[in-house]
Amino acid sequence: MSQGTIRGGAELTADTTVDCDVCVVGSGSGGSWLAHELVKQGKRVVLLEEGGHHTRREFDMTEARAFPALYQELGNRTTDDLAITILQGRSVGGGTTVNWCASFRTPDRILAHWAEHHGLEAVNKAALTPHWDAIEKRLHVAEWPLGAINRNNKVLWEGLGALGYERGLIKRNVNNCANLGYCGMGCPLDAKQSMLVTVIPDAVELGLDVYANVSVRRLEWSGTRVSTVHADVLDPATDRPSGRTLTVKAKAFAVSGGAINSPALLLRSGLDGGGLVGRRTWLHPVVMMMAQFDEKVEAFSGAPQSVYSHHFIDRGPGKVGFFLEVPPVHPMLASVVATVVGRQAQTLLSSLPYLNVCIAISVDGLLPQETGGTVKLRSGAYNRVSFNYDLRAEHFEAFKTACEEMARIQFAAGAKKVMSLHLDPVVLESPGDLSKLSDAKWERLQLKVATAHQMGGCPMGADPKRSVVDPTLRYRGLDNLFVVDGSVLPTSLGVNPQITIMGLARNAAPAVAAAV
Amino acid sequence: MGTDSRRGLLKKGLLGGAVLALGGGGGLFLLPGRLEPLPSGGLKVLDQREYSVFAALARRLVPSTPGVPSVDELEVAKVCDTIVSQTDPTAQAEVKQLLQLFERALPNLLFGGRVSAFTSLSPEAQDEVLGEWRRSSILLRRTGFLALRAVVMGATFAQPRTWPLTGYPGPPSGFHQADAPHWVGGGTPRPDGNGVWREPT
Questions:
Q1: Contact B63 A424 (CB under 8 A)
Q2: pLDDT tens figures, A127-153
Q3: What mean pLDDT is predicted for residues A191-207?
C-alpha cells in the first residue's frame, strides 16, 4: 500500500466522500493504536480528528497558544455547575499530545475488580501484557531517574520519605527528553512519544489517511450495521463549520473520541445503548494543595511528573482511595486554579517560583453507590455537551483526608506555608494547623476540583444489561461498530490511563479487522 | 432573545433556574452603570455594557502593580471578548447573561443593600460584591464568580507582559523551532527525529 496523507480542513475545499475498510473517529491513545494495527494488517484505514494537526513548529511553550489549539473547549471544559474543571486534549494525537507522560500498566487489583464485577475475565494481564510490552518498547517507556527529577517532584519524594509513606518513580514515554517541563503545551522537541510523532506517522507511512479539522456529527446505521460517517469540515482559522462536509463509507467503524465526546457522538446518532451511553463516567477527581518554600521550586521547569505514591490507593471498604503526584505550575493555569483574588492573588502569584503543588487523584467508580458523571446532549450547542458529576460524601471525605496528607507531606519536605484551594482558602502555617482543614467547607463548589483523566460512559462488560460494548469492544446490537478509547473503562484505574487505553486498543484490533 | 427563551436557557444552562430569583426577570432595578469606551477594533460578541463589566471586574481581580502593565494597558476586557467569542454559542449566551446579572442592581440590593449597578460602585464596594458572590451560600452565585474569575485571570496571565509579576522567566530559549518540518506524508520521506523508531543498538 502506498503512503497515506494527513490533510487539514483547509485542504478539503469541496464536499468529499471517501471509501475505506475501517473508519476510526478520534486520534488519541485508542484510535491511533487501533489504526496502526489495522494498516499493519493491510486494511485501508481513515482516521478522523476534530482538532487540528499541530506540530512542533507551533509548540512555542506558551499557554496562550497551547490551550486554544490543543485542549477541548480552549481548556475551559467543565461540568455544568463548574464544580469540576476538565482538562482534555483535542488535536492530532489527542490527549497524548498534551499529557504529562506518566506511563503505568493497568493495576492487578483493577483487572481483578473488572473480572469479578464486570465479567471481564478475558481482559486479563496475560492477554494485555504482550501489547504493553510492544507499546512500551515503541514509546521508549522508562523510569525517570531520581537524579533528574525536578524540585517540585522532589518535594513529594522527600515528604513521602520523611513520613515513611510508599513512593515510586514514574515511567515516562520520552526519547531524548531535555527535561524542559512543557509536556502539557506540546513537546517542542518531539521527545515526548505522543501518538502525534510516533504511531500516527508510522501508520501514515504504511498507508493511513488522516483528516484533521473534521467534526463527526453522525453515524448512519440501519439494522445491525453502520454504513457511513457524516462529518463537518471545520475552518482551521475559526474552528467553526466551514459549510463543507466529509463523508466516509467503510466496512467497519471505531469511535475513539474519548470519554465525553464518544458518548456524545453515539447519542447524536441515536445510539443510547439502552440508556447506558454517557452514564457512569469516571474522572479521577483531583484536589490540590499549594505550598510555599523558602528556596526556589520552579515547578514550571523539568519533567512534570516523575514521582508518585499509591500509599492511600486502598483505604478499606466504603472509602474512596487516592494516589499522589504533582502537576507543572505555569502562570496562566496557576492563576485560574488558585481561588484568591485581588492583592491576595498577586501575593500568591508573585511567589510562583517558590510554589509546589501536590495533587491527590481519587479512584472513583469502585464503590457500589457511585454513579459518576453523565453526558447528555445540550440543546442548541455544536460541540458542548451537558455534563454533570455526582460528587458524594465519600468523595469529600477522600478530598479532606487527601488535603491533610498532602499538607503533612509538604511540611515534612520543608514547606513554610500550605494553602488549600477552597474559595475561602485554608492557610496552614505549620503541621499544628492541620486541624483547620476540619473546619473548612467540604462541599461542591467550595474547593477547586479538576480532572485530567476521563473514563467510562460506554463501559465494556459481559452483561448486556450493564455494558455498552462487549469484551471485544463491539457495540452491542451493531456488528461493525466498536468503541475503542477510555470510555470503555468500567471504573477508573488508580493510575494515569494512557497505557491502559493503548493496550485495550491493540487488543481489540483483531476483532475490528475481522468485522471488515 | 425573548424573555421566555432566555428563561429556558438559564434554567438549563450554566446558571440554573434559581438565578432568576437573584436578579433576572425583565430588568427590574436595571439602573445605568458606567460604560467603558469601546476598544480599538470593536468587540466580537460582547456589547458595551458586558465589556464594561469585564473591565471593572479585571481591575478588582488584578489590581495595578508598579512595574507591570495594568489590566487596562493589557486590554484584558478585550481579550475576554476574544476568549468568549471562541466558545460554543451556548456558552457565549450564558457568559453574556451572567455579566448582565452581575451588573444588575437588584441582587446587589438584595444581598448588600446597594442600589447601584456594579460598574458604578466604588472599588471597595465592588470588592464587597465579589466577596459576596465568592462566599455565597447559594451555589449558583459561586459558580458565577468562578466563571468570570477564570476568564479574567486566563486573559491576564496568558500574556507574557504579566510574567514579571509572577517571577516566571518564560519558556527556555533555543528549543522551539518555528521552521521545523511539518510532515504530512503524501509520498514524501518522513524527516528524521525523536519520534522515528530505531531498533536499540
A1: no
A2: 999 999 999 999 999 999 999 999 999
A3: 98
Q: Can you name the CATH fold of A6-54+104-138+196-278+456-514?
A: FAD/NAD(P)-binding domain (3.50.50)
Identity of the residue in B88, B153, B181 whose CB atom sits nearest the CB atom of A382: B88
Tell me the three state secondary structure of residue A18: strand
A95-118: pLDDT as tens digits: 999 999 999 999 999 999 999 999
Dihedrals φ, ψ of A5, to 5°? -140, 145
Q: Where are the domains of chain B?
A: 3-162
Determine, for residues B181 and A57 on separate chains, whether the beta-carbon distance falls below 8 Å. Answer: yes
What is the residue-averaged pLDDT of chain B? 84
A and B: number of Cβ contacts within 8 A:
186
Three cell numbers, residue A56: 512542533
Of A336, A346, A381, the CB nearest to B150: A336
Rounded distance between C-alpha atoms, residue A11 and residue A483, angstroms: 28
Confirm or reject contact between A388 and chain B (CB < 8 A). no
Domain map (residue ranges) of chain A: 6-54+104-138+196-278+456-514, 146-170+285-451
The answer, yes or no, to whether residue B30 has pLDDT greater than 70, is no
pTM: 0.95
pLDDT at B111: 64
SS3 of chain B: helix, strand, coil, percent, to 5:
50, 0, 45
Question: Which of A332, A421, A443 to substitute to test the interface with B, most B CBs within 10 Å?
Answer: A332
Q: How far apart are CA A28 and CA A41, in angstroms?
A: 20
CA distance B53 to chain A (A): 16
User: Which pLDDT does position B19 carry in this prediction?
Assistant: 42
Please tell me if residue A134 touches chain B, with a CB cutoff of 8 Å: no
